[in-house]
Write a structure and sequence with these properties.
The chain has 330 residues and is an alpha/beta fold. The chain contains 13 helices and nine strands. It has a single domain, classed as Rossmann fold (3-Layer(aba) Sandwich). 40% of the residues lie in helices and 13% in strands. The protein has a seven-stranded parallel beta sheet, with helices on both faces. It has a two-stranded parallel sheet with strand order 6-9. α3 links the parallel β4 and β5. α3 packs parallel to α4. The model has no long low-confidence stretch (mean pLDDT 93).
């Protein structure tokens, strides 16, 4: 199979290229930035470039995007050009080339305002049934890209699966208060409980989707580490998250104490990956139990693939106030 991987110079694109390089598939990496994993350099917003890259392609893994870190440095039109027009160009060429599977990487950020519960209410159980309410141009354009995928399946029968990934970036948190309160690996370890995953599991989710796309046709899936929580714990997660975690993992407190780590006082949402595990036959390996197991052995809980891809950043320049400028929207 000949697979086009967009965004091959980015975190996920490189991870996919690294994983597939010794497989039976022929992989073509494209990106606006050059790298050792990118064969063609250009913009997916350019239909001529996309047309040239799509020759003979059997499947598309579409990871290229402008991300949340670009909201403060790029225009709304930039987001529309890349995230919407770029996706449309790829979908149109996929139809022309009779592509067997189109896998679109999206984000849990599309849920936007639905991720923040009101004071005094339980944490939110986030499944694919939650209606997105985007709060920035990133969320709006990724939601539109998801809708384009659904439209191309509905009207043209193009098999399209949308993977709404939680955070897997290796960079520091964008919130200053979080960076100042927690060691970087501490906050990432905590996030495996409800909103983070390892890039190796992101890759295996994409490959599972590639295998199931033709059979399923269209579907949206939350891709995140498997949470240990259940719905009955949502009230207590807002008021005493450490107690809930200790009731599931009694040993975590001592393991955290040895690292001088702390648990979050509260958790406001929980991403649920059950549909993806069931329908895609996806088997993620990296979760909070894995983190604790690594702490017991004094090992790094990040996968070798995460460490190999490393930190790329999202901008060429360095910002004094954090990893990137943050534009707040309420």
């Amino acid at each position: 199979m000949k697979i086009l991987i967009t965004g091959s110079s980015g975190h996920l694109g490189e991870a996919l290229m690294r994983t597939l390089k010794d497989s039976e598939h022929e992989c073509i990496g494209i990106d606006i930035k050059p790298s050792e994993f990118t064969k063609f350099v250009g913009s997916i917003a350019d239909p001529v470039f996309v047309r040239r890259c799509m020759a003979g392609v059997d499947a598309v893994l579409h990871t290229a995007t402008l991300h949340k870190p670009h909201v403060g440095t790029h225009s709304d039109q930039d987001f529309i050009d890349t995230n919407i027009t770029g996706t449309l160009n790829l979908l149109e060429e996929s139809l022309k080339h009779h592509v067997q599977a189109f896998i679109c990487t999206s984000t849990t950020s599309t849920f936007g305002d639905m991720l923040t519960p009101e004071a005094g209410t339980p944490a939110i159980w986030i499944t694919e049934d939650i209606q997105p309410i985007p709060k920035n141009i990133y969320g709006v354009t990724k939601t539109a890209a998801e809708d384009l995928c659904q439209l191309f399946f509905r009207n043209h029968g193009l098999p399209c699966l949308v993977l709404k990934t939680s955070r897997f970036f290796p960079e520091e948190d964008d919130k200053k208060a979080t960076r100042e309160s927690y060691d970087d690996l501490n906050i990432k370890a905590n996030e495996y409980l409800y909103r983070r995953m390892d890039i190796e599991d992101v890759v295996t989710a994409h490959l599972a989707a590639l295998d199931k796309a033709k059979q399923i046709g269209f579907g949206k899936y939350i891709i995140s580490a498997t949470t240990p929580f259940n719905k009955e714990q949502l009230n207590r997660l807002r008021t005493d998250a450490p107690e809930v975690v200790a009731s599931i993992f009694p040993e975590y407190e001592q393991l955290f104490k040895e690292k001088n780590w702390r648990m979050l006082p509260e958790i406001d949402r929980v991403y649920v990956n059950e549909k993806a595990r069931r329908e895609l036959n996806w088997q993620p390996k990296y979760d909070f139990a894995h983190v604790l197991d690594c702490l017991r052995q004094n090992k790094d809980f990040r996968s070798p693939l995460t460490l190999a891809v490393g930190k790329k950043g999202y901008h060429d320049e360095v910002f004094e106030q954090g990893p990137y400028p943050v534009k707040e929207h309420g």
